[in-house]
Amino acid sequence: MIKKQLIMEKALELFAEQGFEATSVQQITEHCGISKGAFYLSFKSKDELIIALIDQFMMQVVTDIDRIVRDTCDEQLLYEFYYSIYQSFHKHSDFAKVLMKEHSQTLNKELIQKMRYYDKLLEDIILSMIERLYGGRVQEIKYDLMYSIKSFMNMYSHLFVFYSIPVDLKLLANSLEEKTNLLATNATVPFVSVELHHMMQPMNEEITKEQILDTLEQKIAEIEEPIEKESLILLKQQLIEPTFSLAIVKGLLENIRNHPHCKWISYLLRRYYKV
């Protein structure tokens, strides 16, 4: 196992037991069976390790939901959306528990900013799903509906994150699909206006072109498969000096979108090119 991944997995075990603040670097290195020097070769600090764990978890959640919203037919979309969310939280319940607890208590500005960034990405995906499913019928209440869906995601996840009880994910997804449709069909009194929604948005939440380029370079170094690697190289060139048509960019993105190590960069590039 790669040492960096080993540290992340072992640290997560301690964070699940003790929380972020109560866990020291010394405890992490002892739990991993490595020296502090080896730890600091992988991470500059405990905070950097925590951010890496958040990135790993949230990148997977965001890209999975984005894929479902893009690829699922309208009739199954809400069900698949909720099922995927809760399946991810169930699969990674230890980290989900730590994240939900620490997010509500932390004063770490970098952690707060990171979570707001991913929260904004999720909101954008949910809004695109709402507009696709309901169109202009919910124009006045679409932000209320989006916050209701986020509340469903948060509150029902407590059932298996904080309580050791069996949860029928299919029944839960069906139930929330029905509740969401009822709200979309019957709610008539909006509370969250466009102005209020924009006031609540974080500043400078978008990832920069330079950050996308850095991620591209990392993936180019990691990937060995020829089609995906060549597509990444061409996408990097396109980002530096645009020459391809949007159709070609879409084709290159299609080449990498299903590779397990390219899902996040594929998502970022689709967002950047608005495709």
Automatic annotation (TrEMBL):
Domain of life: Bacteria
Pfam families for the chain: TetR_N (PF00440)
Residue spans binding DNA: 24-43
InterPro entries membership: Homeodomain-like_sf, HTH-type_Tx_Regulator, HTH_TetR
Keywords: DNA-binding, Repressor
GO molecular function term, any single one: DNA binding
Start and end residues of each HTH tetR-type domain: 1-61
Entry-linked PANTHER family: ACREF/ENVCD OPERON REPRESSOR-RELATED, ACREF_ENVCD OPERON REPRESSOR-RELATED
Protein name: TetR/AcrR family transcriptional regulator
Species of origin: Neobacillus rhizophilus
